Amino acid sequence: MSDRYDNGMKVRRSVLGDAHVDRAEANKTDFDLAFQSLITESAWGTVWASDGISRRERSMITLALLAATGNFEEIPMHIRATARTGASKRDVLEAFQHVAIYAGVPRANHALKLAKATYAEMEAASDD
Protein backbone atom coordinates (compact mmCIF):
# COMPACT_ATOMS: atom_id res chain seq x y z
CA MET A 1 0.00 0.00 0.00
CA SER A 2 1.01 3.61 -0.49
CA ASP A 3 2.14 6.09 2.14
CA ARG A 4 -1.11 7.99 1.57
CA TYR A 5 -3.08 4.80 2.29
CA ASP A 6 -1.08 4.10 5.46
CA ASN A 7 -1.49 7.68 6.66
CA GLY A 8 -5.18 7.59 5.73
CA MET A 9 -5.67 4.46 7.80
CA LYS A 10 -3.98 6.13 10.80
CA VAL A 11 -6.19 9.20 10.46
CA ARG A 12 -9.30 7.07 9.91
CA ARG A 13 -8.57 5.10 13.09
CA SER A 14 -7.89 8.30 15.01
CA VAL A 15 -11.19 9.86 13.94
CA LEU A 16 -13.52 6.86 13.82
CA GLY A 17 -11.88 4.56 16.35
CA ASP A 18 -10.31 1.15 16.01
CA ALA A 19 -13.56 -0.78 16.57
CA HIS A 20 -15.32 0.94 13.67
CA VAL A 21 -12.38 0.58 11.29
CA ASP A 22 -11.82 -3.04 12.29
CA ARG A 23 -15.50 -3.82 11.49
CA ALA A 24 -15.23 -2.03 8.14
CA GLU A 25 -12.01 -3.85 7.28
CA ALA A 26 -13.54 -7.21 8.20
CA ASN A 27 -16.43 -6.50 5.82
CA LYS A 28 -14.23 -5.67 2.82
CA THR A 29 -14.53 -7.98 -0.15
CA ASP A 30 -12.84 -8.23 -3.52
CA PHE A 31 -15.85 -6.37 -4.91
CA ASP A 32 -15.30 -3.19 -2.86
CA LEU A 33 -11.55 -3.39 -2.21
CA ALA A 34 -10.69 -0.71 -4.79
CA PHE A 35 -13.40 1.59 -3.42
CA GLN A 36 -12.21 1.13 0.16
CA SER A 37 -8.66 1.96 -0.92
CA LEU A 38 -9.92 5.05 -2.75
CA ILE A 39 -11.72 6.47 0.28
CA THR A 40 -8.86 5.61 2.62
CA GLU A 41 -6.36 7.41 0.40
CA SER A 42 -8.51 10.35 -0.69
CA ALA A 43 -10.90 11.09 2.18
CA TRP A 44 -8.67 10.04 5.06
CA GLY A 45 -5.15 10.24 3.60
CA THR A 46 -5.65 13.57 1.82
CA VAL A 47 -8.63 15.58 3.09
CA TRP A 48 -8.79 14.54 6.75
CA ALA A 49 -4.96 14.32 6.96
CA SER A 50 -4.53 17.96 5.91
CA ASP A 51 -3.54 20.37 8.65
CA GLY A 52 -5.28 23.27 6.86
CA ILE A 53 -8.17 23.21 9.35
CA SER A 54 -8.75 21.39 12.61
CA ARG A 55 -10.48 18.03 12.93
CA ARG A 56 -13.19 19.80 14.95
CA GLU A 57 -13.86 22.05 11.97
CA ARG A 58 -13.76 19.07 9.59
CA SER A 59 -16.38 17.30 11.71
CA MET A 60 -18.66 20.31 11.54
CA ILE A 61 -18.20 20.70 7.79
CA THR A 62 -18.64 16.99 7.13
CA LEU A 63 -21.83 16.77 9.17
CA ALA A 64 -23.25 19.88 7.50
CA LEU A 65 -22.43 18.55 4.03
CA LEU A 66 -23.89 15.13 4.77
CA ALA A 67 -27.11 16.71 6.00
CA ALA A 68 -27.30 19.30 3.21
CA THR A 69 -26.89 16.66 0.52
CA GLY A 70 -29.29 14.22 2.19
CA ASN A 71 -26.60 11.61 2.85
CA PHE A 72 -27.99 10.73 6.26
CA GLU A 73 -26.59 7.22 6.53
CA GLU A 74 -23.14 8.43 7.62
CA ILE A 75 -24.33 11.07 10.09
CA PRO A 76 -24.37 8.72 13.13
CA MET A 77 -20.80 7.57 12.34
CA HIS A 78 -19.61 11.17 12.17
CA ILE A 79 -21.54 12.13 15.33
CA ARG A 80 -19.71 9.34 17.15
CA ALA A 81 -16.44 10.69 15.70
CA THR A 82 -17.01 14.04 17.40
CA ALA A 83 -15.90 12.40 20.65
CA ARG A 84 -12.44 12.20 19.05
CA THR A 85 -12.42 15.35 16.94
CA GLY A 86 -13.51 17.78 19.64
CA ALA A 87 -16.68 19.01 17.94
CA SER A 88 -19.19 19.68 20.71
CA LYS A 89 -22.94 19.17 20.64
CA ARG A 90 -23.27 22.93 20.26
CA ASP A 91 -20.87 22.86 17.28
CA VAL A 92 -23.04 20.21 15.64
CA LEU A 93 -26.23 22.16 16.36
CA GLU A 94 -24.67 25.29 14.83
CA ALA A 95 -23.68 23.33 11.72
CA PHE A 96 -27.20 21.93 11.34
CA GLN A 97 -28.71 25.40 11.80
CA HIS A 98 -26.67 26.49 8.78
CA VAL A 99 -28.06 23.50 6.91
CA ALA A 100 -31.60 24.58 7.79
CA ILE A 101 -31.07 28.06 6.35
CA TYR A 102 -28.99 27.18 3.29
CA ALA A 103 -30.20 23.68 2.36
CA GLY A 104 -33.59 23.23 3.99
CA VAL A 105 -35.29 22.69 7.31
CA PRO A 106 -36.39 19.10 6.59
CA ARG A 107 -32.80 17.98 6.02
CA ALA A 108 -31.55 19.75 9.13
CA ASN A 109 -34.46 18.38 11.13
CA HIS A 110 -33.69 14.81 10.08
CA ALA A 111 -29.98 15.29 10.80
CA LEU A 112 -30.82 16.60 14.29
CA LYS A 113 -33.06 13.59 14.90
CA LEU A 114 -30.17 11.28 13.99
CA ALA A 115 -27.73 13.28 16.12
CA LYS A 116 -30.01 13.16 19.17
CA ALA A 117 -30.45 9.41 18.85
CA THR A 118 -26.72 8.85 18.39
CA TYR A 119 -25.78 11.06 21.34
CA ALA A 120 -28.30 9.14 23.48
CA GLU A 121 -26.70 5.85 22.41
CA MET A 122 -23.24 7.21 23.19
CA GLU A 123 -24.34 8.39 26.64
CA ALA A 124 -26.02 5.06 27.39
CA ALA A 125 -22.87 3.20 26.37
CA SER A 126 -20.74 5.37 28.64
CA ASP A 127 -23.02 4.57 31.57
CA ASP A 128 -22.31 0.85 31.18
Any key phrases for this structure?
128 residues, mainly alpha, AhpD-like, 0% strand, 4CMD/NDH-1_regulator, lyase, EC 4.1.1.44, Decarb_PcaC
Describe the structure.
The protein has two domains: 1-50, no CATH class; 53-127, Up-down Bundle (AhpD-like). Helix 1 (3-16) crosses helix 3 (33-47), helix 4 packs antiparallel against helix 5 (75-85) and helix 6 runs antiparallel to helix 7 (105-127). It has seven helices and no strands. It is globular. By secondary structure, the protein is mostly helical.
Topology of this protein?
Elements: H1 3-16, H2 18-26, H3 33-47, H4 55-68, H5 75-85, H6 89-102, H7 105-127
Domain Carboxymuconolactone decarboxylase-like: 35-117
Keywords: Lyase
EC number: 4.1.1.44
What is the name of the CATH topology of the largest domain?
AhpD-like
Structural class assignment: mainly alpha
Strand coverage percent: under 5%
Compute the gyration radius: what is it?
A: 15 Å
Alpha-carbon distance between the two ends: 38 Å
Topology as H/E string? HHHHHHH
The total strand number stands at 0
Q: How many separate domains?
A: 2
Work out the helicity level: over 70%
The CATH homologous superfamily of the largest domain corresponds to AhpD-like
Shape: globular
Report the mean per-residue pLDDT as an integer: 96
Largest pleated sheet = none
Q: So what's the CATH class of the largest domain?
A: Mainly Alpha
Uncertain runs are none
Number of helices: 7
Q: Which second-level CATH architecture of the largest domain applies?
A: Up-down Bundle
InterPro entries: 4CMD/NDH-1_regulator (IPR052512), AhpD-like (IPR029032), CMD-like (IPR003779), Decarb_PcaC (IPR012788)
Pfam families: CMD (PF02627)
Enzyme class: lyase
GO molecular function: 4-carboxymuconolactone decarboxylase activity; peroxiredoxin activity
